[in-house]
Amino acid sequence: MRPAAADESPLVELAAASAPAQTSASAAGFTRAVRCRGAGCSGDDGEDGGGGGGAYPGNAISTTKYTAASFVPKSLFEQFRRAANCFFLVVACVSFSPLAPYRAVSVLLPLVVVVGAAMAKEAVEDWRRKQQDVEVNNRKVEVYDGTQSFHQTEWKKLQVGDIVKVKKDEFFPADLVLLSSSYEDGICYVETMNLDGETNLKRKQSLDVTAVLNEEQSFHTFKAFIQCEDPNEKLYSFLGTLHYNGQQYPLSPQQILLRDSKLRNTTEIYGIVIFTGHDTKVMQNAMEPPSKRSSVERRMDKIIYLLFVSLFAIASFGSIMFGIRTRAELSAGNYAWYLRPDNSTMYFDPNRPTLAAICHFLTSLMLYVCLVPISLYISIEIVKVLQSTFINQDQNMYCEESDKPARARTSNLNEELGQVHTILSDKTGTLTCNSMEFLKCSIAGVAYGNRLIEVQMPYGGIEEECVDIGNNGAVKSVRPVKGFNFTDDRLMNGQWSKECHQDVIEMFFRVLAVCHTAIPVADRNSGRISYEAESPDEGALVAAARELGFEFYHRSQTTISVHEYDPVFGRKMDRTYKLLNTLEFSSARKRMSVIVRTEEGQLFLFCKGADSVIFERLSKDNSKACLTNTKCHIDEYSEAGLRTLALAYRELTEDEYVAWNMEYSAAKNSIHNDHDVAVEKASENIEKDLILLGATAVEDRLQKGVPECIHKLAQAGIKIWILTGDKLETAVNIGYACNLLRKGMEEICITLDSPGTNASEEHNGEGSGMAPYEQIGRKLEDARRQIFLKGTSTPFALIIDGNALTHALTSSLRSAFLDLAVDCASVLCCRISPKQKALITRLVKARIRKTTLAIGDGANDVGMLQEADIGVGISGAEGMQAVMASDFAIAQFRFLERLLLVHGHWCYRRIAAMICYFFFKNITFGFTLFWFEAHAMFSAQPGFNDWFISFYNVAFTSLPVIALGVFDKDVSSRVCLEVPSSHQDGVNNLFFSWSRILSWMLNGVCCSIIIYFGALHAVLIQAVRQDGRVAGFDILGVTMYTCVVWTVNCQLALYISYFTWIQHFVIWCSILIWYTFLVIYGSFPATISTSAYHVFWEACATSPLYWLSTLLIVVTALIPFFLYKITQSLFYPQHCDQAFQFQVLL
Fold it and tell me: P-type ATPase N-terminal domain: from which residue to which, for each copy (predicted)?
């Protein structure tokens, strides 16, 4: 049991007593109050199994879609949301009435099979999720029991306020506030792969005041109160305050350990549970991805509705004719004595023809129900799952370097891959490797670095080794250092001390070694230090500092230690900097800063960031020559495709720092909605009057095969956009290197004439004689005029930067910008934010109304991936967030070529043909019934046995159409890649256009006419039986049904372009199954088999007329399609026909 505490008071009362009156914790969004007492803060093992204390939920989680009680009703609801299933349910219910033209079980059984199969699939998937939940909820963790000891309990029993101990390589069971660790300074290392896919370790630090709580007995008297934000999905932010020993201490993400991340390189940690179960950040992020449906599927729904309209139309027509015929029974000349209209029920009452027509209408709806394909949806689901399996197992999309295959994370969009019109791509990590190498730098206006840049080389001309020439002239190979590809004798091996601006170089290297958040990791064997950095750029810069003589080797919560080369002594000296504040990097700030105190007591602010941000914060005392030269070098590096950062510093006075730190601490301690604004304002007050040191240039190499892939996609007619945050010059250079920008292209560059102008200056016209809004509008108009004059024969490339894009996306210019961009073959957007990426994707999708694909590799690409029709994630160096938000995942950009041009083409053609064929075979069958009904005076007499109708879609024609959707291919993968123009068949929706759909339907109507009237005149008046009797209703029905089964299966055989043994097997076996069923079912007693009783053995099988008429009718029914195919191939060839001819010539 939980030990009772004498002073235990309700949580709300304690919160009110502990929280100072001036805090804003009561503001919306910051209402969580966590009380932790060492004595008795844990729940009892036997109580609240998974329930939480107070008003907060327990730590048990459930990711299942259903419960045992809700599965049946909820799953049934999901199934009957589909119009087709709902319609069949209504028909099945009505079939129990006397209105039914056949037995109710024959209607109900196919519905039960289809819905049952779908529900079984849902049940299996949900059961797997349930098993995973049980495994997670029953994991063990050590929790403090209030008696100076920890004991193990299940995760599901944790409550808010519990103190837990997590050991090395264990997962955190809930969201925790880090109290202490096995390290004296309270640091620990965390792997967040389950959260964001990143494998590099994150460094977490406890507060100094709690770092001493590293013994179990120290928690017996521990009492604390935490006020913090409410549960939310933000993984990288946290606001809270710890009230402990009468003091307030601000909590930041550095003290937060998130559920499902893992403790690494640390023996153990102690933490307080603040969020449990579904309140944890990982569960807050566990949302269903946006629902995406392919254009083919959306059009298929319209066809289903069209079939419903057709069904109601022919049922209405038949009912009207039946009503007229019934009314006519009152006249003497039309009296049908055998129908006994004088003694009829309401279903055939000449005195009440309207009521009889209404009843007939309901009967007709059931009679023609076969027009709607009941097995269409589940067949498509099966086919798409199998198609996804082929994508996953494609060896040509497997990356050996990373050991990662392609993955179809959803099967709903397979066919959409073959219809992609526009690709919107990130650059860094998507087109490039995101493996940064320090290549060049500019210090005090002097450029350093002699290495060649990859984008200036021919494809593949990349150096893999460094060559060192020794004193004796011998040449030896030197293994390159990861992240460092710099050579310049003026800086290497301490030679920088001989430069005239030695002090600036020394400070430059010091900033590289100190201004970062990297973690040093020493190799146990060699002792060499490597770094776990939050980004590849930061890792390359710290590695460069190490190679140039400033080796960062140790970090604590408050210090950074560096081996610095001292030019006076000519050797490395150990220096330790006291870390006072870290102003972290963000995409909005575009910079990071640290404030440190040296061993001599000096205060420095070191800052690095984008040149556009750093230069506007420089002091007026900077040398103009240094500024000018550095700007020129940055432009040169950008034009060469390198990523640049500017470095600066300033020295602070003690009074200045103390005053600022009070302001900054107040902003950090504040708990309100404007917290981030207050912190940023305080940061702005110290990050000013900087002294420029220089700039770095880091190379990010293109991935293998990117230029060739983009060239092939361009040949396929796909328009490509690159959306990047890089400088315009860098992006343009990469654009040429990757074939996005090509020779012969007309470039349209849209930028503001005044680089410093931003959106807030739209109406004041600063920096130019024309307002920015007017500048962009004029340039868009001039560009449209240029395209109009030169026509479509000249390809255009649009290049626009983020500043100009801000104005171009305003409501009045948006349409003009999108019209211009759509007319260009390539579009390059520079200096744009993640929000702008998502906005552009949404606008492009809405504007072109064709399939868009977004591809990226980082968390900043998630919005773009979810906005596009198809999201493709690259499992690169920036983690797995993009992959987890994507529909398809590939290891490298070059695999996109095969994904779209091969699998996209095949999947689109297969699904389109499969759906068209489904409607063809159902219309053929349904209209055969309609002609019989018309011939039988619309009496609602079914032309086939009821079980024939039930098994038509389920048994006799289902397998061949699935084989078509899985295995058929008009051309080989080689031809798909050699003739990329065939991709335009999908873009133009050639195989699923309304003309193609209606032609298949018309073909079905023609086949039904040939089958019905052919069978009618062939067997009805002939002596079919051996005893000389003519054919009756039963023989006519079997003959028509046999012709239908043969016709639809042989029609499929004519359409298939690529036969495998599986397709042969399912086509001919489906026909064989029909005959087998006819024999077995006909052997049942007549009360069961009714009109099928012995009809095959006694009448059909022994009659040559039956076999001959079947042959002639089937051949005649196939002739129209056969002639159409020949005529189209010879006189109106399409892309697919040309590709097939190309394959024949190979």
Answer: 55-105
